[in-house]
Model the fold of this input.
Amino acid sequence: MTDQREVEFDQPNPRPTPRQTIRFAELPDDDWRPATPWLTDLRGRITRRQLVFALTVFVLCATFGGYGLTRSPLLDLDRVEVEGVEHTSADAVRQASGLELHLALTDLDLAGARAGVAALPWVGEVHVARRWPATAVVRVVERIPAAAVRTPDGIELVDKSARVLERVATAPPGLPQLIILDPAVEPGGTQPQVADLLSVAVQLTPELRAWVNSLTVAPDGSPQLRLRDDVPVVFGDAVRISEKLIDLATVLTRVDLKDICRIDISVVHKPSLARVPNCTK
Done:
């Protein structure tokens, strides 16, 4: 069965009007919803082609609108922030990065900026990132000096990889001093012939550093240590370094050092020493 549903209401109007009646469509008894022909026929009126066309227009508008926004002056590079530098100036980092102000953030060459900053002598690690809407951030982790290298051309600071960090007038206190005959290398380069010396220097304990005056290269090319009284320490090949340094510490702390003119720790766990007048020149 079907029924006729009527709804009567007064429509507000400045002028009095007769009471109006809206008649809904005939509905089954078990359907309480009013029929809305314009909504029920909407699906039939919109074809699949029209829907695809509408979605395509929307996607194109969003794409070109987003691209236009990225080219807007609102999203160009206004400043470059530098973090983590101590020995390198922020201006040097900005210049090495090659990041140009007023360039669109999406056009920044972050890989090129990282490579440029990484070439600076003190820079060990570098991270470059965009910070929307108008900033690039360069975060730097600087290298740590491992030794001071005395060359015929002056003193250089090097890290554990033998990278030359800086030329200095005097060696900083507390750093092991390496003495070589090779010419100095420009900051940012690698100092040759110091790899074995550095492998020993970086394992010196603070107590041993107080004893060791310098590290040099022996005539056979092996590392050689010089103690405070210019006593040479024959080290041998740069192998089992930590064990040899323990042997050296044992000799320095448990043996009478009077008249000692040479210590030999080239054989692990079998240190030997010579005293005056038994030293060979």
